[in-house]
């Protein structure tokens, strides 16, 4: 892989992973418009690992409080312990479905047609959820039921173009959570989600034993980390004052361009 492509792909992943625009869709679109070979799932996992490190760093204080809550079984930090076990429960549907998809290799999910329609439909759904429903709940108001509902919505993220962060935020907004709480819970859910995906691919990466490939993957991870941290910081600052509308407009424009390219050009 050319170094400039590695930089571009790492930037795409880092910038789009935590914005509600679908990182997986952009990683698939890139080789299609540049006539490069698909970088494959192993590279995708490498750049996702960089994103994982970024979200852990960004949420380090929340994670530390959760750890204290876990160690004390909630006696010292009941709220943080509750958010921890709700996040764990909410992740189970994604992990089970992900294991099944991994073992059955659904290549059709990486098609541009799937991406175009997912980008359009779930972009409109996010707009509806963000504008219509009453949003007064905070992250401390999470219950097991609301966590499970968000977790089941998260399964839809296996359709490239849906956006894992986007569908989690959509579900949370439907349930009445404010923008910051919806985005923060989405960030928390990204940790086990990315860990699960990385674990499924780690064995294949070790088997390759390719020094040059491993060096490229390490570089991609570092670059993705930097771009991801910047993206998270930007998004969380943005939604303190503004809505998700600019991201939705971007999704609609991207979907229209893809649909025109697929059916008319």
If you had to describe this structure to a student in words, what would you say it looks like?
The chain has helices at residues 3-16, 23-34, 40-58, 60-71, 78-104, 112-132, 144-154, 164-174, 179-208, 211-238, 245-263. With 265 residues, it is an all-alpha fold. The chain has one domain. The longest helix has 30 residues, at 179-208. The radius of gyration is 18 Å and the shape is globular.
The ordered H/E elements are HHHHHHHHHHH
**Which residues form runs of ≥5 with pLDDT under 50?**
none
Question: How many individual β-strands?
Answer: 0
- Which structural category fits the helices and strands? mainly alpha
- Termini distance? 29 Å
Mean pLDDT over all positions: 85
Number of helices: 11
How are the secondary structure elements laid out?
Elements: H1 3-16, H2 23-34, H3 40-58, H4 60-71, H5 78-104, H6 112-132, H7 144-154, H8 164-174, H9 179-208, H10 211-238, H11 245-263
Helix pairs in contact: 1-2, 1-3, 1-10, 3-9, 3-10, 4-5, 5-7, 5-9, 6-8, 6-11, 7-8, 8-9
